[in-house]
Request: fold
Amino acid sequence: MEQNSGYPDIGLADGRVFVSFPPGHPGHRDLAYHRRRVTIAEAAFAAGPAAPAADITYTDEEHDVWRTVGAALADPHAKHACREFLEGADRLRLPADRLPQLREVSDTIEQLTGMRFSPAPGMLAPRDFYSSLAERRFQATQYIRHPSLPHFSPEPDLIHEVIGHGTALAHERWADVYELFGHAVRRLKSHDALSDVSKVFWFTMEAGLVTEDDEVKACGATLLSSCGELDNIARADIRPLDITAMQRQRYTVTGYQPVLFCADSFDHLEGTLRAYLTGAQDKR
Ligand SMILES: [Fe+2]
Reply:
């Protein structure tokens, strides 16, 4: 997942994995949770960024978080999710009773669309994250959010990755747009251009809305992996899909979204992103 401020600091120093939670993170003073995060980050570093993810032996408490989130999302998905998300979910068929392994979700997606997941220990530099998409590879985390906050995670965890992004990657039209983000970032060299692409990714693939039969529906991974985010749509300032406006808009990664952008339809969203991603240029 892509790096941004407000997230934990995760990396390697002198051959040892470190995880540092910022103040306000639900795991900030939880030593057992901290140790768990280090263990799971170690597995991702050991596997490497392009290899299949190693299986994690998830605890009963972690499986409980998955069951809690999955049960709570069932009705909001039926009510708020766009058609393409529901089609992707039907193809992916994530288990309801246990956490899936990132590797097994990856295997299913690869059969469906040629996309696959590879392991990320935590946040990645944006260029690293986007570049792998050009190879139809999505670098994803394997840890589980803190159990005290099952319905909102301040950072992308396995639940966000497989419910939000995995469902989209199981849908051919969506998977192709993810790949286009990768090619655009590989072509663009400037920091400003990368920042612009990141904002468009955020307001579409993470927090996008589409109109369907005169109703606003969620299509972004951040919205669709959080009951709180789906509830918040009703309180958000919803604006028409506008690439330039997105690039000027501030957003939050550690709270609910105050401003969202809504396309006229999924076709409108897909067509707008294809045109933007194939035509984006470095600023001169
Ligand atoms: Fe995400």
Remarks:
- The first strand starts at residue 9 and ends at 13.
- Residues 1, 156, 160, 164-165, 206, 221-222 surround fe (ii) ion (CB under 6 Å).
